[in-house]
Amino acid sequence: MEQRGELVSFRPDIKVVDCTIRDGGLVNNFEFEDDFVKNLYTANVASGVDYMEFGYKASKEIFDVKEFGKWKFCDEDDIRAVVGDNNTDMKIAVMADVGRTDYKKDILPKKDSVIDMIRIATYVNTIPAAIEMINYCADMGYETTINIMAISAAAEDELDIALNLLSKSKVNVIYLVDSYGSLFPEQIRRYADKYLKIGEKTGKLVGIHAHNNQQLAFANTIEACAIGVSYLDATMGGMGRGAGNCYMELLLGFLRNPKYNINPVLRFLQNRIVPLKKSGVVWGCDVQYMLTGQRNQHPRAAIEFTNQKREDYIDFYHSLFG
User: Fold this and answer.
1) pLDDT of 8 strictly over 70
2) Which pLDDT score is estimated for 248?
3) What's the mean pLDDT in 74-84?
């Protein structure tokens, strides 16, 4: 596993992706105030962030629009109300889950949309459907990524087959996703090496999306970065499902690229993230998330534990073996 640069070196190929609204929306049901999203957009532009992910393109046939905030669905008019024609260097992204998106109806041709990138989320067993979505979106004019979720629970041979199939698709970026926050840096390095070798053969870039169950999201992100992963996901204050994600403020403070500016991020944390937490919105690493991460399990049980305001960690721990 060749290291592409020292951790203090400058990497011009790096792209920082802000996922605060999309992953953070899983914490508050996507009920963000309009000013919050506009302030985040302004902060990201001023910070030099490369992509801002607004949320999901979820099916309104599957999900009731009355039960979620607007960023569960990312209608074109709602995004344009924030960004206008987005006359900035930052690009706009949305996520589309395999099987949960009416992509042929809800994803407009690129010429009619302010969105630049469609990020397709899939599991290993739905790769064929994901490739159909990838190729469709690419043909519509979009940049595309594929986020293979829960790879720590996937069989190695199945992952290899999936990566081989994706390498032949029209996808631009293949993402290494630590959905359960269970992976350690040495494991991330091994996975990243596998992804990069596939990518280099077929002209695909590689990204990483890390969760913070064991407080390793930042460490895992920069470990992947060190050997050549170039798309790096992060959120303001680490806001995201359960234990959250790699902290944007940590990442921008680490990167040596002068295009990135941490000051607007700090201002956003002060003015928007701190009040959001004080209002009762909860995310971040805690014992229950650490335990599901150590057990390589989906954090749904830990999320329920948190929602119930439980503190019986020993009982919870033993329930994970059931």
Assistant:
1) no
2) 98
3) 98
Using a cut of 0.90, tell me whether the model's pTM lies above it.
yes
Residues 36 and 64 in one domain: yes
Query: Residues 61, 206: one domain?
Result: yes
Q: Is the pLDDT of residue 322 over 90?
A: no
Nearest to 225 by CA among 198, 246, 201: 246
Q: Are residues 191 and 54 in the same domain?
A: yes
Q: Which two tokens stand for residue 47?
A: 């910070």
User: DSSP code of 173?
Assistant: E
Place of tokens 């309104």: 60
Which CATH number fits the domain that encloses residue 44? Answer: 3.20.20.70
DSSP 245: B
**Which residue type occupies 239?**
M
1, pLDDT greater than 60: no
Beta-carbon contacts of 91 under 8 Å, excluding residues fewer than 6 positions away, are 50, 51, 52, 116, 117, 143
pLDDT given for residue 13 in this prediction? 87
Do residues 153 and 293 share a domain?
Answer: no
d(CA 213, CA 293): 5
> How many domains does the chain contain in total?
2
pLDDT exceeds 80 at position 7: no
Tokens 């170039």, located at residue: 230
Q: What pLDDT is attached to residue 252?
A: 96
Q: How far apart are CA 134 and CA 233, in angstroms?
A: 20
Q: Is residue 189 part of a domain?
A: yes
Range of the domain at 294: 287-319
Q: Give the sign of the dihedral formed by CA 302, CA 304, CA 305, CA 306.
A: positive
- Please, are residues 273 and 253 in contact by the beta-carbon 8 Å criterion? no
